[in-house]
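Below is one record:
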Amino acid sequence: MSALGRLLTLRASASAAAHRAMASAAAPPAPAAGAWQVRAALVRGLPASFSKALQMHAGGPAIDAAAAAREHEAYTALLERLVPRVVELPADEAHPDCVFIEDTAIVTPCGVAVVTRPGAPERRGEVGPVAAALERLREEGAGAAAGESAAGGAPLVRAVHRLEPPALLDGGDVLQVAGFVLIGLSARTNAAAVEQVRAALARAGARGPDGAPLRVEGVPMPHGLHLKSACSALDDSTLLASDDAAGRAVVDGLRSAVPALAARLAVEFVPSDPLAANVLRIGGAVVMQASPAEGFVRALCDARGLRLHALPRAAELAKADAALTCCSILLA
C-alpha cells in the first residue's frame, strides 16, 4: 500500500472512531424509493490559509479561518453519521481553497470518475491528491473484484479519467440528476469540458439508474459562480432553485437546453435564501444549513419521505462563495 493509501486508511479509521458514539445515536435513515445510495464520501481538511481563499468579488469580507474550520468539522461529523465511510484528505496550506474538494472531480453513481481541470489557474494544484485517492479506490475495487478484499458491493470507483486542455471544469458546475449529467457553462467551466466529459463517460459505458447511458448536457450560466450555486436536486424528480436572477436563469436555460429532463422535474423556487437551494442528498436524507427557508424545504422533504438535517449556518465558508455541496465528493 502506498504512503498516501496508508494515510487515507488511518485518517478514515480515526475519523470514524472519533464519531462512533454520535453515529450509533443516530443511524442513517432508510433510503426513500429511488434515492441515490451513498456508500462513501471524500472530504479534505481546511487549511489555516483559508483566510486567503478566492472570492468572486474582489475585496469581499474578511474570512475567519478558525471559525470556518469549526463549520467544516460540524459538516464532516454529520457526514460520518449519514455515510458508511468518510475519507478525509489532508489540507494543503499552499492551496487555500482545497477544502472545496467537489471542484476537483466528479464521480457518477456507477463509479466512473472524471478528474477536473479547475477554471481558476491557482486551484489546479489541488487536483493531484484527489486523483491519487480516486486511483486508490479504483485499485481497491479491482482487488475486491479479484477476491482480494472483503469489501462488498460494486467498486466505489471503477475508472478514472482526466480532463485535458483546453477543457476547464469546476465540479460545482456539475449536477447529476435522473440519469443526466448537467454541466453549467460558467466563468469557470467551458464547452470543451462538456465534450470531454461526454466522451469519457461514453467510453466507460457509464449508465444511470435506469440502465440507460448517462446523458451529458451543457446549461447556460449567465449569473453566479457555479451551477449548484443556484440549484440542486432534492431527489430525481425535484429541482431546488434559488428565487433570484441566478436561479431563474438556470431554470430557463435547463428548459431550453434539456427540455426532456425539464419536463420531468418539478421546480421549487426556494424563497428568502439562495444558499438554501443548495442541499446534499444522501440516501433518504437531505442536508441543508440553517436558513429562513428551512420550513419550506422541510415541507418538501416530508412530502417525499425524506429526512431533513439542518447544519448550523456556514457563514465563513459562504464568504468564499461556498455552499454545502462544495465540501465533499459523494460515492454511490
Summary: The radius of gyration is 18 Å. Residues 1-34 have pLDDT under 50 and may be disordered. The CA atoms of residues 106 and 194 lie 12 Å apart.
